[in-house]
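User: My instructor asked us to take a sequence, write out its structure as tokens, and then describe one feature of it. I'm not sure where to start. Here is the sequence I was given:
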Amino acid sequence: MRTVTTYDEIAVKATRYWTDETGKRRQETRKFFQTQNPYNRGADGFPKSRAQIMQEITAERDAWLASFKKEN
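Assistant: Let's start with the prediction itself. The structure tokens for your sequence are:
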């Protein structure tokens, strides 16, 4: 018999919009996520809390959006 364990996924979505060189409106959506599980550990060696994970994925999302603004 096989045991399947599922973990809670903590996710944040971000969408960036722009108009390309031909005048068409474009958008790109990306999902930033991590799961809260005993193997997802922080630098201190303890499992990450939901707040720590949210802080990390929000910072990753903000960096992604900021890099797009610098390109355009």
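For the description part of your assignment, you could build on this observation: The chain has one helix and two strands. Try explaining in your own words what that tells you about the chain.
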